[in-house]
Amino acid sequence: MSKGALVSKPIYQLKAEFFKTLGHPARIRVLELLSEREHSVTEMLPEVGIEPAHLSQQLAVLRRANLVTTRREGSTVYYTLSSPHVADLLAVARLILSGVLTEQADLLHALHATPAPPPQTPPAPHDKQKP
Predict the structure, then answer these.
(1) Of 68, 84, 117, 124, whose CB has the highest number of CB atoms within 10 Å?
(2) Domain ranges for the chain
(3) Alpha-carbon distance 58 to 25, whole Å?
């Protein structure tokens, strides 16, 4: 995508595309790992839990979005976050999710603490007798 194409898009559309890039569990897990430190693909594989080819695809998506950078040391490729703000974003998302889950847990607890109303059973059908 050219820089001119980026400038002509509204910021909300660019944000939507950015968040779409984050919309895969494997990509989120990769970014979480890279928030801690630089990792090689070999180090990430057991942590992410997907096939090597799939991890490679997800890393390519993150590279195209400029969320990660690479360096090569011999035959090993190491990945790192392109900006510490990515780690900040993940931390904020975790805080928001924690709040949402806490509210849901509170609602669930309140639901279980409230006595259930008696079941409303429909009246039994009356047998009509012929006169």
Answers:
(1) 68
(2) 3-85
(3) 10
Higher pLDDT, 105 or 81: 81
> How many alpha carbons fall within 13 Å on the CB side of residue 61?
19
Give the CATH number of domain 3-85: 1.10.10.10
**How far is the C-alpha of 39 from the C-alpha of 42, rounded, in Å?**
8
pTM: 0.74
Query: How far apart, in whole angstroms, are the C-alpha atoms of residue 80 and residue 33?
Result: 9
* DSSP percent split of the chain into helix, strand, coil, nearest 5: 60, 10, 30
Q: Over range 2-7, report the average pLDDT.
A: 58
Percentage of the chain beyond pLDDT 70 is 86
For the ranges 94-98, 111-115, 123-127, the lowest mean pLDDT is seen at 123-127
C-alpha–C-alpha distance, residues 76 and 112, integer Å = 53
Give the whole-angstrom CA distance, residue 44 versus residue 79. 10
